[in-house]
Amino acid sequence: MTELSVRQPAVLIVGAGPTGLTAAHLLGSRGVRVLLVERNATTSNDAKAISLDDESLRTLQSADGLDEAVYPILVPGTGTRYFGADGQPLVHARGTGDQRLGHPFKNPFAQPDLERVLREQLRRLPNVDVRFDTRLTDLTGHPDHVDVSLRTGGGDGPVEELEVSYVLGCDGGRSTVRDLLSIRMQGRSFPDEVWLVVDTLDDTHDQRYGMHHGNPERPVVIVPGREGRCRYEFRMKAGECEAGTPPPFPLVRRLLEPYRQITQEQVERAVAYSFHALLAERLRDGRCFLLGDAAHMMPPFAGQGLNSGVRDAANLCWKVAEVLAGRADDALLDTYDTERRPHARAVIDLSVRLGRIVMTTSRPRALLRDLMVRTAMRTRPGHRYLTEMRYRPDTRVRSGAVIPLDGPGRGLVGTMLPQPRVLHGPHHRVTRLDDILGQGWSLLGIGLTDADWAAVTRAGLPDAAAVDVFLDDRAPRDRAGREGIADADGRLEALFTGLDGRVALVRPDRLVAAVFTPERAKLVAAELRRFTAHPITATVPPAATDPAPHPHGQHDPTGVSR
Hints:
By secondary structure, this protein is α+β, with helices and mostly antiparallel strands. The chain has 14 helices and 28 strands. The protein has an 8-stranded mixed β-sheet with strand order 5-4-13-14-15-12-16-19, with helices on both faces. A hairpin with a 6-residue loop joins β13 and β14 (220-224). The longest helix has 28 residues, at 331-358. The radius of gyration is 24 Å and the shape is globular.
């Protein structure tokens, strides 16, 4: 890593777990000067989270193609098979299978591998500095900055005082940032529900899916990984092992015996723990923010703990970069809590419900569960609901930096823009949509005329990449100041059918902010001025094959390197 520069960092990120590392990439790739500190001497060696979803991979893609560095450590495109009390299969849930966001739906991995790759890839960003064995000891918020105290080394290490624009608390369930801000966690814990997690080596499982065995006598989760790794999770019975207590090897061997023989050297990690279902009472305190486990903790049954942290970073980091660059007002940062809290709460509740249903220790409840699932699987709606995991909470943003106007396209507003592969430009290159849009705002005009575009660009909308969408099997072509895309496999056509003559305004985090006709562009711009500081005309993004410069200029004294 580079040494800390003479210039002060604009953003201090506390905690170098997956959420903090992702936030550092998202900010650093946008030119923000970042200092990332971690209390431990290295990245974590604990295998906690084990599944990265399609939305998280898309977020990594937005950080200068970071997804390509992560794919080699994944088992891409898996699902989960659920087994009933009798050991027979109930359902194989694997999403829609259509890679709607441009990536496989579910992807197991080992968290130490992910953290290692994310840390190594930070070397690409000279404006991001990383300090391990460094802890935050104090912070004081002011209207225009935050004073922070950092201590490197042990208790006798030197203390450094810094002034930063923002602090991102990504420091886990025992968050120092949250404690210093006196923010309480609300919800409940489950101290009596203890699970033993065992990560093994030299495993013979070759399945590309997780297995949830709903035997009420001993609920078990098995998730095969890469190169002979496998995760086993066992529900403990009273008196077998306490949370936080190192499990004895004879217990581990006995539990694994129905699935494999094990030696002590083949146990990579074994830990007993209990769950929490908690959400911070506020995610923002002045210029300080909570992300990941510092903001919310949930049981693992929905596989959304780590993914929720990445979703936090995706929602917040572009907003921080926009405010630092003077392109948005402080009000935009208030939308972080407004937009993230409802979904985080819904995912926590889903995780608790899934644990009660899927991993129940009640035999009558398990038998009723199996009957209901098998009955539902005989119907087309029930089959789709379960196999496509439609029980997951809706990610739609209904309040925040979105403008839901009446008319066609309203249903897209507040949702994640799909990422189809498209034909790009006169040479018809097959390209991922996001690689054309770049890192900033985007305006996708569906069948617009030059006069329509003139009205849109005069309206005072945010600085945005301008993209012409050609439907009806028409060839894409670039026009002055705009890129052209067309349908490659039917997905773009399906997405925008019925929206001819309209514009989709897409935020940097790929959320659709508005769908409108050119005549209503000024109305949309006026609504956005609640958050954006200066209206600027549309710009053309760099070609997908060109080196990607920062999309908005060169230098800014607020702490963003241009």
